[in-house]
Structure formats: C-alpha cells, structure tokens
Amino acid sequence: MTDDVTSRLTELARLFLKLGITSFGGPAVHIAMMENEVVRRRRWMTHEEFLDQLGASNIIPGPTSTELAIHIGHLRAGWPGLIVAGVCFIVPAVAIVTAIAWAYVKAGQLPAAQGLLYGVKPVVIAIVLQALWTLGRAALKTRTLVFVGLAAVAAVIAGVNELVVLSVAGAVMALVRIARERPARIDGTIARAVLPFFAQSAATVAATPFGLWPLFGVFLKVGAVLFGSGYVLLAFLRADLVERLHWLSEQQLLDAIAVGQLTPGPVFTTATFVGYLLGGGEGAAVATVGIFLPAFVFVGLSGLFLRRLRRSSIARAALDGINVASLALMAVVTAQLARSALVDPMTIVLAAVSALLVFRWRVNSAWLVLGGAAVGLLATLM
Where are the domains of the chain? Predict the structure, then answer.
C-alpha cells in the first residue's frame, strides 16, 4: 500500500469517526454534514460528484447516509476506503448504543430510566411524523402514486406481508410506466397481476425460539430489502420481531426506537440495541453485522449497474412505487406505536409541542429528544 493511499485512509478514518460521534439528527443531517466536509472544506469532490454519489445511495436498499459514507470512501481510496469509511461511521454509534443497552438491561426498570423513556417516546412519534410528512410530499408526485400508497396502507392494515407490499408497489409502477411508454392494449394486465398479491394475507408464523443465526437472518433480510428512510426500519422490526417471532414486546420496540433517536450516527443502530436485548453482546454484534453487511456489498457492486439503472425510466418508476410503499409501512407502524407512547395528557401535550417545534421551527431532533428526556425525568422526580 502506497503512502498516498495510507494517508487517504487515515483522513477517511478521522473524518468518519468524527461524523459518527457528532452527527445527531438523522440522515438529512448526516448528508448535510458530509457535503460540508468533503465538498466545501476538503474539496475531495465537486458538488455534482457528491450529488451523483447521493443519487447512487438512494436507489439501492439500505441506510442512505451510511451508504453515502461508503461511496465517498470508495471514491477516495478504493476498496480499503470503502471499508474504512463505512466502519468508522458506524462504530461510534454502535459503541454508544451497546453501552445504553447494557445500562437498560441492568437498570431499565428503575424509575429514572422509566421517566427518561416516558418523555422521549412522545417526542419520537412527533419526529417520525415530521419525517413522514417531508418524505411523503416528495414521494407522492402523481395521482397513481397516491393510489398505490393508499392501497399499500390498506394492504398493511389487512396483514399482507411487508415484502409483498413493497414488491407489488414497485411492479405496479413499472407496469404503468411500460404501458405509457409502449402503448398497447393491456386489458387489465396490471390488475390481474397485482390484485392477487394485495388480497393475499401474510401467513401466520408461530413463535420461533430465539437463536443467533435466526437473528442474523432477520437483520440481513432487513438490510438487503429496506428502501427509504431509516424510520421504515420500525415497520419491518415490528412485523418480524413483535408480531411474527414474538421475541420483543411492543414496549421494548418503542424503547429501542427511543434509544436510536438519542444517539448519533445511523438510525439502523437500533438493531444493535435490539440484538443486545435478545442476546447480549453476541446478539448486538450479530444484529449489527447483519443489518449493515448488505450496504457494503451493494455499494461495492453498484458501479457495475447503477449508471445503466439510473437511465431506465422503468427502474425509476419501480423505485417510486417502492418508496411510496415504504412510507405506507412507516405510517401504519407510527399509528400503532403512538398508542403505546401517548398514554396520558402529559405525553399527548409533549408530542403536540414537539410536533409544533419540529414542523414550524425545524428544531433539531437531537435537542427535542434531550428535552423530552429532561421532561420525563422531572415528571418522575416530582
């Protein structure tokens, strides 16, 4: 390895360790911080090149801001840079979340911990609603997409498997695009292809005994198929870990979400917290590797097909459908989790005030979460 490559790897490690420690506020904040560091301050790439990397991150499954970090590392120092940038961005958050998970397991039932989570959970609901609103305005660009989104909501409520909902939504939009670009009599082809899937209910799966390999499989699947905001992760975790496998309670999932909001770095480190709850340190490691491994693989392979994929109007249409279905999952799970978070007048007021602050004045979500924690602790002490 040449001195130049070593120097670049050292720069990448320092930068992404710093970002991993300080990047509170979610993917949008992470992306803004990366743009400031690599375009404006260090001038490693032009603004156009940065947008190209961001676009590449948006059209593959996985956590967008983490994949952007991996893309930057790859562009800067090849395959070693890909690994260094991604790992250094993830590791600080994983360490912090693991420490919090350890404290939660040891003292999670103490009044102080209960008070902290009591105040944080309503704030999390407001933050997710704001993300849902912002993403929805960008995603629902046509009447067809609105229809697909509403159909996806209905399908999720009816119990259709979330992977089926995502796949069918993407297929619908791809077929619509084909029909528009290649006018022909399709005579109900779309409806015949789609309706049986939306009518299909998810099979009831009995509770499965916990194990590290099944845990790895759950998070590997999520990391490999999840499109859209990291908040969509909540819908997948609820479907798999609460409803199908029965490894977590609704309350534990909400606690995991709250911890994910308290910490810097990728929202996907919620997996670390869940893994620790279920399997201690080994569970945390397995869940973390499982959910982030596909991001490294997809970014590494993406150069082979992304440029051609971005030129395909049919592929872009399918992605639009998948994104809308992801928002549908997010909307349904937010409504379900709100029932566990908004339990009395205090939590309802806290959620309303947080929503006002985040919608009207765009207050950073990290400050809102810290404020909610303080209110919860004060309420407990009083």
Answer: 3-90, 91-381
